[in-house]
Specification:
477 residues, alpha+beta, Rossmann fold, Uridine Diphospho-n-acetylenolpyruvylglucosamine Reductase, domain 3, Phenylalanyl-tRNA Synthetase, Chain B, domain 3, globular
Length: 477
């Protein structure tokens, strides 16, 4: 049975009460200015029906009465939950009560439900509609907790200042200015103010699901940090984000100057580049690749490899695709053709206690180990480099595993993922280069099930738990 409650009919009065509780002095100054200085085009307001975006919609509506005839409400329905249509009804009713036009985006069918794919679907809808409707500004309801969650999330991925200063109060996407005025206000305060103004909102039960990493960070890591530190965590995180943005802007400005000097005829002058700090070198190479005709992506591992080779004066050969690689020629960094390609190889036996020497020079090794409390603790606390080794549940009788390269249609579900998907898509998400995709070994059990792919967590069916007696230990280096 649906527990749907429609929004109140007195939204104008509610929005004005909210503005009294949260005057514009409490909003982020730069985001507020972006709204006030917005050109005479439409302004989009993204609204899921949840507390944060409902708060944003009502406050912007109350604070900028002169802009109401340019406001437009956007909602995206992923169709992943039974209550998804009720969320849509709620947002549509709010838009109608406020007298604002609205547009709904919708997933045709619930397919990939991982966080990255869902975000891509929403952003694609927003950006396409923004171009169609000629929005000059888009308002999003991110709050102070979102800043902290994003920093914690990206720290685990090894992000630099560019990633750690997100979400920014304002961000330019082409001709669209994305404004986030409420990253100065924490999640609990937003809900308190909504309740104080007698406003209801929609709750998305998937926000409580432990399958999503951001939810685990929100429910576990962030709450624990708030309790453990001796001061206001969110204020400190906001301050750090502001400082990181300052540093990121400085790096970007100096990178532009360096690129003007170092890049000529689609190549990088390495002697000129050597005059700059490592952070500038890193950004020059990244921006150079992003600015090429094919706009190549590069992994952090590949970039580190290039920078180390430059530092040591070694030959560079990093494959970006099946036809292009980064190479060094006459003290310049260029894009050229790969020297050679090592093709995939067929199914091979991997006996316990033996190493399997692979094309390309790396070795895959398999042993069976008696589990100890310290070893299980090491595995469960994530103290394992998944690019080089993995621990799986095992039995002392397991004598042989198997290895091969990927085949069309291979599927995989690593520990921590919400479901299975094609291995090809996992590799695309990780931005693996073509050489790695073609040569990385897959470890299989006797039934043919993939139990580990180096660089990923082991298969969910192989998850180590307390009380395990034997473990399979796999190494790849």
């Amino acid at each position: 049975m649906s527990n749907y409650l429609p929004p109140p009919d007195d939204l104008l009065a509610i929005s004005e009460r909210l503005l009294c509780l949260c005057p514009t002095e409490n909003w982020h100054e730069r985001a507020l200015s972006a709204l006030g200085d917005s050109p005479c085009d439409s302004i989009g307001i993204a609204c899921s029906g949840g507390a944060d975006s409902t708060f944003a919609l009502l406050l912007v509506y109350a604070a900028f009465p002169d802009l109401r005839d340019r406001m437009f409400v956007l909602h995206y329905n992923h169709n992943l939950r039974e209550s998804s249509n009720d969320d849509e009804r709620f947002v549509v009713k709010m838009a109608k009560v406020l007298g604002l036009p609205h547009e709904i985006g919708e997933s045709e069918e619930a397919t990939r439900s991982d966080e990255g794919s869902l975000r891509e679907q929403r952003l694609s809808f927003i950006f396409n509609l923004s171009a169609k409707r000629k929005f000059s500004c888009l308002v999003q309801g991110h709050n102070q907790d979102d800043v902290a969650e994003t920093i914690l999330w990206r720290l685990s991925r090894g992000s630099g200042p560019q990633g750690l200063c997100s979400p920014r109060p304002i961000h330019q996407h082409g001709n669209l200015c994305i404004a986030r005025p409420f990253i100065t206000i924490d999640r609990a305060k937003i809900r308190t103010m909504l309740a104080g103004a007698n406003m209801i909102w929609r709750e998305d039960e998937s926000n409580d699901s432990p399958e999503y990493l951001r939810n685990r960070i929100r429910k576990n890591s962030l709450e624990r940090l708030k309790a453990d530190v001796d001061r206001d965590l969110l204020s400190g995180v906001s301050r750090s984000r502001d400082l990181l943005e300052e540093q990121e802007d400085a790096i970007e400005e100096w990178t532009g100057r360096a690129m003007d000097r170092c890049i000529c005829e689609d190549s990088i002058d390495l002697q000129c580049l050597s005059e700059y700090p490592l952070a500038i070198k890193r950004r020059v190479v990244l921006n150079w690749l992003a600015g090429t005709e094919s706009a190549f992506d590069i992994t952090s591992t590949q970039l580190d490899q290039i920078l180390q080779s430059i530092k040591r004066g070694e030959e560079i050969g990093v494959s970006l695709s099946s036809r292009v690689m980064v190479r060094m020629k006459d003290s310049r960094l260029i894009l050229g053709k790969p020297v050679a390609k090592i093709s995939g190889w067929p199914l091979c036996s991997l006996p316990c206690g033996h190493g399997l020497r692979l094309p390309g020079g790396k070795t895959l090794h398999f042993t069976s180990r008696k589990a100890t409390e310290s070893l299980i603790s090491q595995v469960l606390t994530g103290k394992v480099d998944q690019s080089r080794e993995a621990y799986c549940v095992g039995l002392p009788k397991v004598e042989t595993l198997y290895a091969r390269t990927r085949l069309p249609g291979d599927e995989y579900r690593p520990i921590g993922s919400p479901g299975r998907k094609k291995l090809k898509n996992w590799m695309i998400d990780r931005k693996l280069d073509q050489y790695t995709k073609d040569t990385i070994p897959l470890v299989l059990d006797s039934s043919g099930e993939i139990i580990w792919v180096p660089g990923f967590a082991p298969a969910r069916t192989q998850q180590v738990e307390e009380g395990a007696e034997w473990l399979i230990h796999l190494t790849y280096h």
